[in-house]
Structures are given as C-alpha cells and as structure tokens.
Write a structure and sequence with these properties.
single chain, alpha/beta, Rossmann fold, Rna Polymerase Sigma Factor, Chain: A, 2 domains, 7-stranded parallel β-sheet, 5-stranded mixed β-sheet, 16 helices, globular
Amino acid sequence: MRKRTLSILGSTGSIGLKTLTVARSLGLQVVGLGALDEVDEVFAQIEEYKPRLAVLFDGPAAEILSKKVAGSGTEVASGPEGLIKLARMDGADTFVAASSGSVALEATHEAVRSGKDVALANKEVLVAAGSLFVEAVKEHGVELLPIDSEHSAIWQCLGDRAKARLPRSQVARLILTASGGPFLNRADLTDVTPDEALRHPNWSMGAKITVDSATLFNKGLELIEAHWLFGINNVDVLVHPQSVVHSLVEFADGSVLAQLGRPDMLLPVQYALTHPDRVAGPAPRLDLTQTDRLDFFPVDEGRFPALGLAREALRSGGLAPAHISAADEVAVEAFLAGRIRFTDIPRVLERVLDELGAPGYTTLAEVRSALDAAKERATAIVNR
C-alpha cells in the first residue's frame, strides 16, 4: 500500500476527524493541518500528529495557537495566505479538502497546481469551478480522489472506467442514493426548526451539510459533482432510507452494480487514501444479516425543490452552479440563525439563480467574483 503524506484542510470537522482516524490506523503521516479557529482541538492534533504546519484561518486564534506550540517544531499560519501555504507545502503528496463551503476553492486549486493528489470531500469546489479543476487535474497529472460516500461508491463500481473516463458508451446512468433526511415522511415542512433539521437519521455530519441533506440540496451538489468527476450526464437520484447502498451504476446491457457499506465515512475516506489497494482498517463491517430490507423510492421534488434547482443549474452551465452553491451557504446560515424558514431556502436559491443567470467563466477569479456576488444577492433577499 502506498504510504501517502497528508495535509488536511478542515481537520476539526467530521471528515477531517475521520481522516485522522484512518491516518492513525494505517500509519499515514500528517504533515499539515488546517481549520477555522478551533485552537484547543488543533493543539491536541498537533501534539499527536506533530505536523510541520498548522493553519487557523482566523488570525487572533492563530496567534493564540502559535504561543501554545512555541518550540514544538510546528509552524503556525493564518488567513487565505495560510491556506495556500498548506496547499503548496513540501512533503505532502495528498491534499485532503475536508472543509465545507467555498473558502477551500483557491487552496484546493493550488494543491492541484502544486502536483498534489486531492482527496475531495468539499462539494463546493467542483460545483463552483468544475471545468477548471478537471482541466488542472489533467494538466498536472494528479488524481482527484472522491471522498463523498456516493461518489466513492460510483468510483468503485466503475473500476478502471473511472480512471480512464472512457468508454462512456458502456455506462447508461449513475444512480445516487439519498437517505431522505429527517423529513422523508413529513408532509408539511413549513414549520421545521433548525434543531429538527440537524437530526439526521443515519449520518453524523457538520451543520451545513446536515441541513443540505434535509433539503436534498446536498444531493443536487453531488449530482453536479458526479458530472465533473465521471464525465457522465445521465445522473438520477433515488431515496434509500437505510443508507446501506451508497450509489449504483447502470451499464448499457442493463446490469447494475452497487456498493454497500455501513453509513460511516471511514470506509470512503480510507479507500480514497489507499486506492487502488484495499487493506484492513478502522471502518465498521456491514452485517447483511442485520439488514432486513433495502427500500428505494423516487424523490418528491415538489416537497424538495432544491434538488431540481441544482439540476437546472447544471443544465444551464457556466457560473449557475457557483451562484446557487453560494446562495445556499447564505440561506442555510440564515435558517440556522432563525431568520428564514426551512422552506425559504430553495426560494432564495431560485431567486439568485433567476437573477444572476449562467455567464461563462475561464478563471478562478471570475468564479470567486461570482460566489461573492451570489452571496451578496442572497443576503439581500434574506434581509428583506
């Protein structure tokens, strides 16, 4: 098995912690850590993993951490410059983009440009700038290693076709599965509270992605990601409440391959870091004798319109996916703060999508400008 050396952006989040668990279990070296402002958590990680660099995006928090680790051999940096330094650092061959939100955009792109493989859990990166990332990965000869359980499942089902991105004629469609979130059987979503939206029935995730799972916008982001990761346009979504089948691939001859596993991110994280090898690790095993049923249903897009809006953004192309992704960041934050209703989230997305349209882009600066414009417009809509 290849012994990757890792720099991890988002080391205190759910995916970052799973990555550290896998690294500990498999003896992988962690040379860089990045987080927002969690001084105590990152300090504990430094003590265990002894990285050469730790980045806290928040400047004052980074100053506190710097004093705590003085003389330890770990350098501390902050801000956007710190994230770029983490992405470029020597000694790391794999950059783990484990954070959520668009803050990781430039750093992840810089990691690719620096010749590092990218283990990708951040949805917004490919959604906002998919064409630029696909081009950069090809130009610099690196690998994009999907961590999301759904994309990992498709990757495993496609096998060699995923790496070659050919021949697409053999693949009829990709099928993403969605748990349905906490409101699968709830008819009226008008009065959903933030606390209810954060009670996911199967997965333990950060607040943003948990709310996105409740609106099914998370599945819309994954649909856009799947297009860029695998070069396939025919992507469907099925509700699968048990979260055992993580996704499926239907081939031209009608055969369907599925990847199954416990609803735990340890396995997809480990597969990304050990591919193409498979080794024993910390992931819990699936016991099919304890799985009494596997159900699949079509998505009710009348109750969950955010999925259809994401599909519309993908069809529109250009900066439309960036616009809707950034608008969702604002809308979810407003919902969690009690400023808008749960059902207002897709309305904000639709307004931003309609008003900002789908202009083309050729640079990351244009993508960043579009993200900022969409956040500004979404904020204005929310504040009305």
